[in-house]
Amino acid sequence: MASSPTQHRQAEPNQVFRMLRGQRSPGEFAAAVRRAAREIGEQVACDARYIGRVEAGEIRCPNYAYERVFLHMFPGLTLTDLGFSARETVRGRGARAAVGAPPPEAPHLTIQKNEESDVLRRAFMTSGSATVAAVSLGLGPGPVRRAGESEVNAVAEAVRQIRLLDDRHGADSLYQRAAQPLRTAYMLLDANTARQATSDRLHAGVGELAISVGWLAHDSGRYNDARSHYAEALATARMAGDPALEAHAFCNTSFLARDMRRPREAVRAAQAGIRAAQHIGSSRLPALLTLREAGGWAGLGDRAACEAALSRAKTLFAHGTRDADPEWMSFFAEAELELLEAQCRATLGDWSHAARHARRAAALQSPLFARNLALYRAELAGDLARAGVPDEAAAAGHQVMDLLGEVQSSRIRAMLSDTVRVLLPHRRAAGVSSFLERHAATQRRA
Q1: Are 379 and 330 in contact (CB under 8 A)?
Q2: How far apart, in whole angstroms, are the C-alpha atoms of residue 337 and residue 317?
Q3: Which of 28, 277, 358, 380 has minimal Cβ neighbours within 10 Å of its Cβ?
Q4: 268: confidence class by pLDDT, cuts 50, 70, 90
Q5: Does residue 310 form part of some domain?
Q6: Taxonomically, which superkingdom (predicted)?
């Protein structure tokens, strides 16, 4: 009887998976796997023995249910990132073709320290461990003497992970966990770098990380912390002569100033960002900055200036995407354009117009971005309440609350609380009473 393709293949330990388990016992990690499965509607009978088999290399590729769970636990990673073999090399035609050939070197299982560190860099935000966060950026207990491509890539991946998790879950649960990687990243700026190009990329990455952490502070209501992080990013941009980073820092500073009720500062920061973005070659970046400017003008009550800025922003947006558009602007699609106009209209007191734009924003937003969907619906609920449509406002409020189990954002909760105050005199309108009671019950449990 012919032997199976994998019968004589010696199992190699999955060292990457073992490192991702961290300090948790196999049993504790198995419990985390089962919890993650329930979050996405899967059922897996994971126990300590299964985790042991994975780490021993006996399970070279998990079944599809486990695959979905693992990718949910470590967003942005692939099975091979987690130390598994590609499915086609384990079973089916690809595996049969490999019979008689030496097994391919698994990139995560031999001379693996650099590759394992790369995976840990991409997973640190899901680990919740400050220790793993520090290790993930390539730092040991002593000072860093040299920063190279590995560290630059680590910082960039940290930024991507924060943005991904914020899109899915909101900022509240992430801010404290992101502070340690940022401190670690700042230490890298004092390390030697082999080339100027590496140093420039490192400064840009650390600046973007500061903005991302600042946004987490901003969205969770820690305005002073956010202001400090944005200022650090701006200083980093100025030192590195990086106009794209400078424009991004000014963009977020303008947004924060608007929320802190400093509309003139919002206008000036947005205009400074537009000047910084002049030679980047993107239309979407100045479009967003011009929308920030419009928000400042609305806060000042200058309707004509706000309308003019909105018109310029729409013209720029209509030019479409370009290769020069910064990576962080992936969120800026038509739904966000509608939302920002809704906020301007609301600030000017045009509640019906604001509700119309907020409704479009919610309709256009992908359900994959739970945080933004909750934000858009919260804006809609508030605008409808003030526009004199309490029943529709309550319905939108219920939709927001449906999402608050997975989205943690103090900003969104505050918006919903404002809507509740507006709706209190209308509790006899259809559906309003049930919404108010549901919100009150949630507040009691908080």
Answers
A1: no
A2: 8
A3: 28
A4: very high
A5: yes
A6: Bacteria
